[in-house]
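Pipeline run #58 for the internal structure catalog. This entry was flagged by the ingest filter as a single-chain record with no existing model, so it goes straight to prediction. Upstream metadata was stripped on purpose; only the residue string is passed forward. Reviewer on rotation: M.T. Logging verbosity set to normal.
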Amino acid sequence: MHRTVAGLAPAAPGYRSIVVRPVPDAALTHASARHETPYGAASVAWRRAGGKLTLDVVVPPGVRAEVHVPGGPVAEVRHGTHSWTVDDPCLSQPRVRTIRELIGSPKWPDAVSLLVSHGLAEDAVDAAHRAGRYLDRPAAELAGFLAMKTLSDGSDAKRALEKLLA
């Protein structure tokens, strides 16, 4: 839960760098996570109120963080306390969270085009068939799953898919 909803995860061994990628949900008003790293406490907290989402991130000394602000920018930050306030992404449109939701959404044709252009699927049928094992996994991870049986690591496709889903 701390890696998905709150969005706190290591980006390098020993939490030398972290990634913050929270996934706010319309059913929740707030979430938080804290992890004691070898460099000190890292924490993430977000709250939804008044049509806004506020994200607070604490990065310990000597650590870098890549912060994916929902509905906002990706920020590279160093140690300290950081805060962002953006329009609440849960209010704008239903967020596609899982691969199952992506396949049934209006974003599916664009996602298929992206996967085909990166050599990860032949067409929509191929993409849906190969994604069948992962239907309840996060939609942003689809490119990585499809890349497992190719020579590509899928990182370019994953970034493009994340942008499409944002």
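catalog note: The radius of gyration is 17 Å.
catalog note: The mean pLDDT is 88.
status: ready for reviewer M.T.
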